Amino acid sequence: MRCSRKKSLGRRPRRRRKDRCENTCTTDVFGASEMEDECHQDLAPQCSILENDQCSDTTGTDDNTIMGPLSFYDSLRSDLSSAVTFPYQVNSYSEYIQIVELYPSADKVSQPTVKLTVTIDTDLSAKLFVHRIEICKDDDFWIGLPTLFDTPLKISAILEKLKSYTVCFGSPDECFQSMVEVGTLIDNNTGDTSSSAYREGDFSAVKGDTRYSSTIRSTMCKLLVQDVNHVQK
Fold it and tell me: Which of 78, 82, 135, 200 lies in the 20 to 30 Å Cα band around 186?
C-alpha cells in the first residue's frame, strides 16, 4: 500500500535557524611592568570564538576544562599571597610575578613611590631593581640565594634577605642639587669613569628619619648596602 502525501495548506513552515554561538571573552588587565612608571593600564582581551559545530551546554563545566589548565608559572603566582608580607606586595597589574616595596608617603595626599622591585621571569630566574637600576648577578646580595625560584619559599628568601639591606644614601645635600640637573653625568676631567657621578631623580626616598628628594651617586654605587641596624642572622 502506497503512502499518500498530504497537501500542505498555506505557507510552508520556516526552518529553524541553527543557534549561533556567542563569543566567550575574558579580559585581563595588565599594567606597566614597572610601577614607578607613569600609571596606566592596558586592556588585553583573550577571546576564544566557538564555531557552530562546537556548541554545547557548558553548565557545570569546570573553568579549566574550557580555558585549559593553569601553567606552572601562573600557579606559582597564585600561591604567593601567603608568602609575601609587609612591607612587600604583589603587583597584580603585571603579567609577570612582580613584588614591590614602596616608600612611605610624606602625607595623605602624596602618592607612594617604588623603592625596589623583584621580578620572577617565566624561566624562573629573578631580577632585582633598586631605584629602577638592576642589581647585577655578580653583586654580593645574590650569594647564598638559589638560581631558580620555583617555589614561594625560595622567592620569599629574596624578600627576607632584603630586610637586612638598605638603599645607599648618596650625597643628598641640597647645596649640590642646584648645580646639577637630574640625570646629568658628572666627570672629574681625568677620563676615569670609575670616579664619575650622576644626579638621581626624585624617589621621595626615606632612610630612617631622613627624607630626601634627590641625591648624587657615584656611577659605581651598588645601591644596596648592609643595614647596620638589621644584621642578618
Answer: 135
Which region, left, alpha or beta, applies to residue 143 given φ > 0 means left and ψ of -120 to 50 means alpha?
beta
Residue type, 66: I
DSSP class per residue in 31-63: E-SSTTSPP-EEEEEEEEPPPGGG----TT--H
Backbone phi, then psi, for 127, in 5-degree steps? -130, 140
Q: Kindly tell me if the per-residue pLDDT of 22 is higher than 70.
A: no
Closest among 86, 88, 103, 129 to 210, alpha carbons compared = 103
**Domain residue spans in the chain?**
67-163, 167-226
Residue 108, all three cell numbers = 595623605
User: Among 134, 191, 144, which residue's Cα sits nearest to residue 164?
Assistant: 144
pTM assigned to the model: 0.64
